[in-house]
Amino acid sequence: MLREKKFEKIKTIADDLYKKIGGDLNKVSSVDSNFSVKQTGNFTPQGSVPGIGKDYAFINTSLKIELNKVSEPIKGLRGYYLIKITKRTAFDSTLYATQSTSLRNTMLQEKRSRFLNQWVTEIKESSDIEDNRHLFFGQ
After folding, report:
1. How many Å apart are CA 73 and CA 15, to the nearest integer?
2. Which of 12, 26, 38, 80 has the most beta carbons within 10 angstroms of its beta carbon?
3. Are strands 74-75 and 80-81 parallel, antiparallel or unpaired?
4. What does residue 84 show for φ and ψ, rounded to 5 degrees?
5. HSE, side-chain direction, 13 A CA sphere, residue 107
6. 85-138 pLDDT, tens digit each
7. Is the distance from CB of 17 to CB of 82 less than 8 angstroms?
8. Bigger pLDDT: 110 vs 60
């Protein structure tokens, strides 16, 4: 409840800031000194955003907005963001073709491991285990 109230408050502040900067992120600190502009650097849609982490709202918006245009406030996991994408690298299909088998095998192995661990956990939880190690080890 408190978190929702904080998000509502920061939403109004972010909307007001968005209107005041007029599409220029360089004006942010002059409009309100409580806010600053930071660059994330390069990141991939599957990876973590430097300085932010895995925030899917941030990443999804970054993939969709126009280059060199400031987005409207986007609600992320830890607050609101104004995003401006300055460079977007095109999808490299040749690199994907060379790595697709490796990526597929890695994902398949992760899924197998997850399934096996889940199966073992379910068996342990549903089993009636009696500890008789003292008979075997003679203690």
Report:
1. 6
2. 80
3. antiparallel
4. -135, 115
5. 7
6. 888 888 778 888 888 899 899 999 999 999 999 999 999 889 888 888 888 887
7. yes
8. 110
